[in-house]
Design goal:
Elements lengths: L3 E6 L3 H11 L4 E7 L14 E2 L10 E4 L3 H13 L4 E3 L5 H17 L3 E3 L8 H12 L3 E7 L6 E2 L1 H4 L4 E10 L5 E9 L5 H10 L7 E6 L3 H7 L2 E8 L8 E7 L2 H15 L6 E3 L6 H4 L4 H8 L1
Parallel strand pairs: 1-2, 1-4, 2-3, 4-5, 5-6, 6-14, 10-11
Antiparallel strand pairs: 7-12, 8-9, 9-10, 12-13
The structure holds NADP nicotinamide-adenine-dinucleotide phosphate (NAP).
NADP nicotinamide-adenine-dinucleotide phosphate binds next to helix 1, helix 2 and helix 8.
Length: 298
Amino acid sequence: MKKRRIAVIGLGNLGRSCAEALLADPTLALAGVVRRNPAPLDWLGDIPVVGHVAELHAVDAALLCVPPGVVLGMANELLQRRLPVVECARLHGDAFLAHKAEMQRVARLRKTPAVVGAGCDPGILSLFRNQFALLIPHGHTRSSLHVGTSLHHSLAAEGIEGVGKALATELKTQDGRLQRYVYVELEPGADAAAAEQAIRQDPLYLDEETLVFPVESVATLEETNRGLVLERHAAASDAGHAALLLEARFNETELAARMMLAAARALPQLQAGAYSLDDLPARVLWGEQGTSAEREWI
Ligand SMILES: NC(=O)c1ccc[n+]([C@@H]2O[C@H](COP(=O)([O-])OP(=O)(O)OC[C@H]3O[C@@H](n4cnc5c(N)ncnc54)[C@H](OP(=O)(O)O)[C@@H]3O)[C@@H](O)[C@H]2O)c1
């Protein structure tokens, strides 16, 4: 199968992650990089670095990785050339809707597809928030970033059979209750469920709701120590007391790049117009692997 050739516009943090992801991708190829001051870069090998997209050969789509203030102007220029675009400028709420409407107008005028807000946030985290609210329509959402200082080693958890190292942190829920999060590095062959239950039943942890998350390396978590807890709780009047929780640790730029590549895979299946991730089913984001993804994940 011929790889679709994708250009990266702007080589800052996100542009670099996109270029690296494209170099490693089995279905997409990096056609080249467009920069304000182009010069060859060793790590790109023979991939061209140019000052304008017109200098690149056979480009199928472009990933816009430039500041939000210049995204619209650049998208307009690319769409005029009938080049489909993907971007993920940090815009939310009304500003995002206004931006999408303008992209929609231009994309339809140029008869070319564009995907907007296809990053991490906006992007995949927007999808999670949206679906949590869809499943618990009457309730509240709380989103909190982990901070390094809140993590401490938990000797109580480390004393439990099967647990190597453990870090704990406490977070407050919207209604003021304390919840404890315990991250555990399990010893090889340890029974995760048994270790989790033992931690929850430890007298030290009985007084508060305790959530246990096995991780590969507590040391890595301590170093990067970036993550997000997204919670959605049903309103107090809801007798079912439903709650959904996403506990995530990730590199935001890498996740945004991954989402942009997924959006680029969707482009050949899209009519002219601007799409947000809300408009795109997962099978379209999988590109040609849509059917096998549906078989595996549905
Ligand atoms: N949704 C998400 O999760 C998410 C995550 C990260 C970033 N973003 C978005 O991605 C975009 C890039 O973010 P970033 O963190 O990579 O920023 P960055 O590190 O500042 O990189 C932006 C790059 O754009 C180019 N650039 C800067 N000013 C420009 C101008 N006036 N005109 C044209 N090009 C210009 C530069 O590349 P050259 O020097 O190579 O020309 C610069 O390195 C932003 O729109 C940001 O909001 C979204």
